[in-house]
Protein: Glycoside hydrolase family 16 protein
Organism: Suillus discolor
Amino acid sequence: MLQLRHAIICLLCGYLSKTTAFPSIPSNIDWKAGVELLGSFEWPKITLPTKRETAPNGSTILWVIQDTYEGSTFFDTFNFYTGADPTNGLVTFVDQQTAFNDGLASITSDNKVIMRGDNTTQLAYGVNRNSVRIASQAEYNMGLFILDLDMAPWGCGVWPAFWTLGSGTWPYNGEIDIIEGVHDNEHNQVTWHTAPGCNLTQNTNFTGTIVQTNGTDNLQCNAFINNNAGCGVTEWSQASYGPYFDEANGGVFAMNWDENGIAVWSFYRATVPLDITQGRPNPSNWGEPVAALSTQSCNITHYFANHSIVFDITFCGDWAGNSYATSGCPGTCEDILMDPANFVNASWIINSLSVYKQSWLDIVSTSSATRTHPIMNLKTCWIISTVIFLHLLVSL
């Protein structure tokens, strides 16, 4: 009778070893050995993060990969922009074939993505310099965007940006500038441009400094005032843009955009969180962001929608051109544009761009959300109940 009890228990354990709750239990265990063998079995250890984001309903938020842009397929899902520069730059954006033919876009043998401004052609005064601007074919409404790069463009007269842009009439679906700077600045600037009514909140927790005009914080993201300054935050780190960032072998920029706000982090190479490198990002463990736009003064879902991802390298223009005289760079922006040697650092070198979407861990709900304990489904509970009943019956 004792052997029958053991057989019933072991049959149950054999069934459970094939469920997703216990994927690592060896399938070749001699279940006839009974509970003695089970008693010596060491269950797999699961290490949970020390902190996880939680949704308003109490569920744990996980970020799962949605799109990956890298290597030989990077440009397959981007479109090359060839129109006039909306920021009045002294630049001509070329099409994809021209970009590849002229070396302005390429993939290296070790799968690094290169985009650069023309750094080989001597120009006459007043002639635009060729460059690249691309936009993703996919559009996004919220997500976690993580860019890993070895180099971002910089140099006198150079104005690069990594940003997202809402479709339709600008700026009514918003613009988020994640990486942006001019000349050889050392501090990255994160900026939001929107329709009137979205504002930056001063008491939001972030480590950067709010951009000012005439000593006053630019809190209104309204693109129709302050010469389209938007609401910007300058990062504290001198390695977040320019030569120091590149000397440190680049790093990672991350933007978390959801209904609770939009936050940006940057990490130079030596400080990239392990959860990012392992493909399991967890913003809750990254500390305060360098910049954040909260829902306290901006309805995120109202002002930001249908965003494509954009990379570009502009020369001179509204920001780099207008700030040139105080930049410490020689001559004028038009002068420096002529010599290709001035643009040897005007390059993006990208390892990967990953876009994650939210998923939820819910151990109570029977919805389609991910569950931590599949053993608790109805079918398995029925089997357990049956085994208990049989165990009692045999005991009689």
